[in-house]
Specification:
The complex is a heterodimer of chains A (about 140) and B (about 425). Chain A has about 140 residues and is α+β, with helices and mostly antiparallel strands. Chain A folds into 2 domains: about 70 residues, VC0802-like; about 70 residues, VC0802-like, CATH 3.30.2130. Chain A contains 5 helices and 7 strands. In chain A, strands 1, 2, 3, 4, 5, 6 and 7 form a 7-stranded antiparallel β-sheet that branches. The longest helix of chain A has 11 residues. Chain B has 2 domains: about 325 residues, ANL, N-terminal domain (Rossmann fold, 3-Layer(aba) Sandwich), CATH 3.40.50; about 100 residues, 2-Layer Sandwich (GMP Synthetase, Chain A, domain 3). In chain B, a hairpin with a 2-residue loop joins strand 15 and strand 16. Chain B is globular. At the A-B interface, strand 1, strand 3 and strand 4 of A face helix 10 and strand 19 of B. The complex binds zinc ion. The site of zinc ion (ZN) has 6 residues of chain B, from loops.
Chain lengths: ~140, ~425
């Protein structure tokens, strides 16, 4: 139930983010979710896209430093405390959440969220047990 | 390996005897250049030097330096301390601009330098039974001929192969059972690759024992690689045509620093900016005074090569000082917060860190701030920010430990910095001091 995330190393240089997004747009890649982790002089752009392999290929070709990593996608009830409930489950079981970010679009009653933890397999088991709806790559393609 | 000597008396001379010998020779050299070389007579007079006031070796530092530019003042014969009829050989060395440096040898100079080479060859375990394939360029360049004479003096069989034609090089090695080669490190790597490609087994098909590599800088890593590929011991040799070519300093069997023959040269290590001696063990520019050369003696010659001296005595028993492999050119030095820094020091640190790609750039800006931009290795990036932050901290700390200044390290994308080509692009100075 893991989904593929594309990470791109970005140095702090004017227009660099635009160049990545433009390269993807030229290749007809759709971005479903996006987040930027920033330090003072570099950042990491994280994206869920409709075709991660193809996206990585075009970025590599354009000279970017990109990597595909696994994350978990969950559907959270779109009401106050929805995400907090999920994080509580993980926190109680000593799972370390590295980062969380939300999808650009959402469908219906649910907010879609990307989660990365230090133990993806255990996270999946725990969330399944708790009845949380996990997203698979199929669902993502049809978004 | 048992330790043998070509000239045990001189090579094991006690340090105090060595100083006495150096001083005696220095007095002679100074007297000769004063009498026979108008250029030096003028230079010494201008500096207000009275030769009778030179009472100890340390008075040497009162004398003016000789620079590369000085070699062109009375070009080409002006620095001769012997009549032309006593000169038997010319070597030249290409400068960065215009005319080549012209270096002259008397008969005595040729054999004196040959002895330095012979000592070095014995120092690494070679004997008259060895076969040396000399794959340096014969001709105006000192590299091949000076080594050739030294190897013959020792009694080795010398194959004057010259560089290139790798097929023939390998054929010569196989037919005549070459045991030693003398070549550049980059060519050695190439030859090793071709030997491997042919499926030849070093140690079986090719019986090399030693490779004498010089004429261009190379790292410990390259040494290990060549040693591994060719199953040889690689020895670093240092020389420059102004000082008679190869043989000025050479590694012994312990491969930790190069013995510089102090009966032939006085070595000083100075701060290239101030001209003052550096503290013991510190990196600086090597300055050499020739003690044996008769045709073209040079006083306090600025080599522009950066190195440092080892303090501790060498287990091989030789008393002559050891210098580190050349770490770079004095012209590349810059100063941050009062500390002399060389790009090569930074390069050496970066090369030893996993996750770092080849290129880096040093930017000096503001009030003495130093930024080091480092390309990350594409394969190192795994999407985690912690890993990059850790890498940045590791680079910062390791640089601080070596250069004594804490730089700001910036990680940049691979392939975005200019490819290494000299100082111009490596160090960008935008300081507003
Ligand atoms: Zn030694």
């Amino acid at each position: 139930m893991k989904i593929k995330q594309l990470s791109v190393f970005l140095e702090n240089k004017k227009g660099r983010l635009y160049e990545v997004l433009n390269t993807l747009a030229q290749a007809n890649i759709n971005i479903r979710a996006l987040s930027i982790a920033d330090t003072s002089d570099f950042g990491i752009l994280r994206m869920i896209v409709n075709n991660p392999e193809e996206a990585k290929r075009v970025l590599d070709e354009a000279g970017f430093t990109a990597k595909i990593t696994n994350v978990i996608g969950v559907a959270v009830k779109d009401r106050p405390g929805g995400l907090a409930e999920i994080l509580k489950i993980l926190y109680e079981k000593d799972i370390n959440v590295e980062y969380v970010y939300a999808f650009v679009e959402k469908s219906g009653e649910e907010a879609l969220v990307v989660i990365r933890t230090n133990n993806l397999d255990k996270t999946i088991d725990l969330l399944k047990e708790a009845g949380v709806k996990l997203l698979d790559s199929k669902t993502l393609e049809n978004l | 390996m048992e330790t043998r000597f070509f000239n045990p008396k001189i090579e094991k001379l006690s340090p105090s005897e060595l100083r006495v010998l150096q001083f005696k020779k220095l007095k002679t050299v100074l007297r000769r250049v004063y009498q026979k070389v108008p250029f030096y007579r003028e230079k010494l007079k201008e500096a207000g030097i009275n030769l009778s006031k030179i009472k100890t070796l340390s008075d040497l530092k009162e004398l003016p330096f000789t620079t590369k530019e000085d070699l062109f003042v009375d070009y080409p014969f002006g620095l001769l301390a012997e009549p032309l009829e006593k000169v038997v050989r010319l070597h030249t060395s290409s400068g960065t601009t215009g005319k080549p440096k012209a270096i002259f040898f008397s008969k005595k100079d040729i054999w004196a330098q040959a002895e330095l080479i012979a000592r070095a060859l014995v120092m690494t375990g070679s004997t008259s039974q060895d076969i040396l394939q000399n794959s340096m360029t014969y001709g105006l360049f000192t590299g091949a001929l000076v080594m050739h004479y030294g190897a013959e003096l020792l009694g080795m069989l010398v194959i004057p192969a010259g560089p290139g034609n790798t097929e023939r090089q390998i054929e010569l090695m196989r037919t005549f059972g070459t045991t030693c080669v003398h070549m550049t490190p980059s060519y050695a790597l190439y030859v090793a690759t071709v030997i491997q490609g042919k499926g030849l087994k070093p140690g079986v098909d090719i019986k090399l024992k030693r490779a004498y590599l010089g004429a261009e800088p190379y790292s410990e890593e390259t040494r290990r690689k060549i040693e591994e590929m060719l199953k040889v011991d690689v020895y670093n040799c240092y020389g420059l045509s102004e000082m008679g070519g190869p043989g000025v300093a050479f590694e012994c069997q312990f491969k930790k620093g190069l013995h510089l023959w102090e009966d032939a040269f006085i070595a000083e290590i100075i701060d290239p900016k101030t001209g003052m001696p550096v503290k013991p063990g510190e990196v600086g520019e090597l300055v050499l005074t020739t003690l044996n050369r008769t045709a073209m003696p040079l006083i306090r010659y600025r080599t522009r090569d950066l190195t440092y001296a080892f303090e501790e005595p060498c287990p091989c028993g030789r008393t002559h000082i050891k210098i580190a492999r050349i770490i770079g050119r004095a012209d590349d030095m810059f100063i941050v917060r009062g500390v002399n820094i060389f790009p090569q020091q930074i390069e050496a640190v970066l090369m030893g860190i996993k996750g770092v790609a080849q290129n880096y750039q040093i930017i000096l800006e503001g009030l003495d701030e130093m930024i080091v931009k480092v390309e990350i290795d594409r394969d190192f990036f795994d999407g985690r920010i912690e890993r990059l932050l850790k890498l940045r901290d590791e680079i910062t700390e390791k640089l601080k430990a070596v250069i004594q200044v804490r730089p700001k390290v910036e990680l940049v994308e691979p392939g975005t910095l200019p490819v290494s080509e000299g100082k111009a692009k490596r160090v960008i100075d935008r300081r507003t001091l």
